[in-house]
Amino acid sequence: MKDEHKFETRLLSSLSKVFPDENLADSPLASGSILRNETFSFQMAFRSEKLLKQVKVHTTVDSSLKVEVRSVGVVPSELPVYPDHDEHVIRSTPGLYPDPLYPITEEGLTAFPGQWRSVWITIDSEGQPGQYPIGIRLESETGLVLGEEQLELEVMSQSLPDQTLIHTEWFHVDCLASHYKEEIFSERHWELIRSYVQTAVNNGMNMLLTPLFTPPLDTQVGGERPTVQLVDVEVIAPDTYAFGFDKLSRWVDMCNEEGVAYFEFSHLFTQWGAQHAPKIVALANGEMTPIFGWETEASSDEYRSFLQQFLPALREWIEFKGIKDRSYFHISDEPSLDQLESYRKASEMVGSLLNDFPITDALSNYDFYVNGLVKTPIAATDHLDKFLEHEVSPLWAYYCCAQYKEVANRFFSMPSARNRILGIQLYKYQITGFLHWGYNFWYSQYARKEIDPYRTTDAEAAFPSGDAFIVYPGEHGPIESIRLKVMQEALQDLRALQLLESLIGRERVISGLEEGLDEPITFKCYPREADWLLAKRAWINQTIHSYSS
């Protein structure tokens, strides 16, 4: 039996953003295709003319497909984007933006009168190739059918190749302890760390920021973040130290169990120029006490002596754990050109101690690379041109709040296509790795205080909403976001393109991607439409199928 009051539904792709106060503009979605080991997401939008509570969601799907249905929540944004933004945003006004993906409880959904909302459907397939109808039905609490839709999903016989892109989103373990009110590295904290690592790995993050010492990132000068130091340090004589790696071993073992492929050891010097040592605490005279920090000049004899003892001990431990080929180091994050000399001194301090490890830092000026100060540059996406022009390899890319003109990004205010296009760009330019600083930064800017990420999405008017975190804290673990799932799709696009390249060659892949475009795809120039992306991914799948038959 069907309810007689007006209730509208529409299937939409994962690239649609459904706002409560805006009519739907995107075309209905009728079908899709995936490779066998791929995740496919789509939405069912709905609008009721009256308030309805306890709306139930029912799915009809073949048992070989794993389906998850979540409710797309809305969260406030007071700073959606900077005022001088480009035209490629959905809206720039403060308000409620769709982002968190909430599990649907026994109480079901609420349909607010006159508001469009949506549910997010995720399909994972390891089943047999074929056509699968996916049915979605919404019912009232009395069992009346409010609306129903069906999507035809083709599961192809081919599988995505393993991910080769190295991908890190900086993981802030102190934010977990702060939000959940748990003692750092207590058993409950370790459980939370594991659950957030699982979500990261499941969404294509295969490198994990590993806090040897408390990472000197987004910290107010003179201030400090909670101590999250995995390496135990003991002062056994003046300027003489002993090191313990038990917690670091536990971390690495956990990462191995959860599928982390690479370890990104935290920065050995402070952010923005390598002028100081990070906060390091040690057991001295029977008490835990800070031995280095803001008061320590980076090039001081004391810190140099410490590194000359610590890094060889760490190298020996890395060799023992068998992770040398999976280990990366940082010096200082985002140095500017006027900090080149302080960065040079820091680079030279550790260069001979880490000469056979990759050292990689986020920076935008080519001079750091050409002067031999960083082996593997991580260039901002709006400053990649010079690195690409000189065929730098390996080359990584990153974006953050500063990359809000022309290039890809994932602010609340931006269309999801601007998030997903990154996969095609990384493929075309053969980028080795991608870094973003905000997996779960739930503090205000400079880590001055804790924030509630469901209420404050801009780090207290510091970064546009969507920059500082891509997961939310749930009661027992992470709540994913639509931006996270779309980023996962971008990485799947990259892997699908690599599979296609193995079948038809790189030149033909790029020619097919750019067919019909007025200009070649670059990091600043690319098709903006969601329909183009969806059609191009369909072409990729169809071509893979044709050349695999």
CATH class category label of the domain at 7-155: Mainly Beta
Number of H- or I-type helical stretches? 12
Unreliable spans are none
Could you say what the CATH topology of the domain at 7-155 is called? Immunoglobulin-like
CATH level-two architecture of the domain at 7-155: Sandwich
* Radius of gyration from the alpha-carbon trace, in angstroms: 24 Å
Find the count of extended strands (DSSP E, 2+ residues): 24
Strand order of the largest sheet: 1-3-8-5-6
Give the overall form.
Answer: globular
Tell me about the biggest sheet? 5 strands, antiparallel
Note the beta-strand portion.
Answer: 25-35%
The end-to-end distance, rounded to whole angstroms, is 45 Å
* Average pLDDT over all residues: 97
Approximately how much helix is present in the residues?
25-40%
Structural classification: alpha/beta
CATH superfamily of the domain at 7-155: Immunoglobulins
InterPro entries: GH123_cat (IPR025150)
Pfam families: GH123_cat
Domain Glycoside hydrolase 123 catalytic: 170-500
Protein name: Glycoside hydrolase 123 catalytic domain-containing protein
